[in-house]
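Appendix C reproduces, verbatim, an entry submitted by the partner laboratory led by Prof. M.T., so that reviewers can inspect both the input and the predicted structure.
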Amino acid sequence: MFTLRIIEETRESESVPFEQVIENFEIGSSYSILKKGATKEFDEIMETEFLGADMMPIESLLCTEHGRKFFIWEQTPLRNYSYFIMTENGKTFERL
């Protein structure tokens, strides 16, 4: 089984420090990563499931075996994200 760990750092302006939230999600035994501009499947899913999301700064989608989808956001001066796929024993399998 894999776990998606998201470390989200946000701030109101560039003059204040980041606030941090760490989240973990069980994603099952398999997953797919669809990168913007690298596969038509990314565009198809964004058009059919996430209307209007094409204007958001999303660089990829992580699709789980259970049908759940996670946005992999682009970095901005006000929002930093780190994404890790973790194994059952807590080791990093992949950094996105």
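Strands lie at 2-10, 19-28, 31-35, 58-64, 69-73, 79-86, 92-95. Additional entries are available on request from the coordinating office.
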